[in-house]
Amino acid sequence: MNIVAIIFFAICLSVPPVFLEISFRQTSYYKQKKKGYFRTLQDKGSYGEYLIYKKLRVYEKTGARFIFNLYLPSQSKNVDATEIDVVMITTKGIYVFESKNYSGWIFGNDKQKTWTQCLPQGKGKKALKEQFFNPVWQNNAHIKALHAVIKSNNIPTFSIITFSDRCTLKEINLSSNNHWVVKRRDVPGVARNIDCACPIVFDQNAVERLFVMLMPYSNVSDELKMQHISQIKNL
Predict the structure, then answer these.
(1) Which of 129, 190, 199, 223 lies 20 to 30 Å from 119, alpha-carbon distance?
(2) Where are the domains of the chain?
């Protein structure tokens, strides 16, 4: 193979990643986070948030606005701030997403303080079990903090807890109709059902005002982020 053919082959191999990065940098996710596609891909939490956005970005065509990683003043005495993974603001209300990029079997209900992630270890081996804080309670706290910031409890707010497609939602029991616990692939269907069932409550100007009001809470210092992580670990 001559040198021209080698160079041509190398260019062909490099083009797809380049296009991926260029396309990614046109998204609202990149414009807010300033983290490239391959860096995002390597961060499990960030990638889970991006995939939620990717499933729903079609709503941007009708005026929806997204905000990522909102650090709001907490309404709990145990932590100073609470972090919302993804917010989508539309004329129908505010969608609040808690992203859980977990695998394995997931068990829980909205009455328990902790839920269980069960990870099979192979034939004849006992499954590994991990506990994590009830995400329904977690998103309730997020919504309470959000309402405090916007100074209104009357805006329709939809709580959607989103798990990875790699997991199995084995036993999830909810007594409330105000929350959805789904796998990521089901997010578009949930959003579509909410959108079809709910009336318009905002005009586009109101959507923009809420976006402008909340955006500063996504631009926080690394010190505050680390403090929040430390407080959550100590709960």
Answers:
(1) 190
(2) 1-42, 59-233
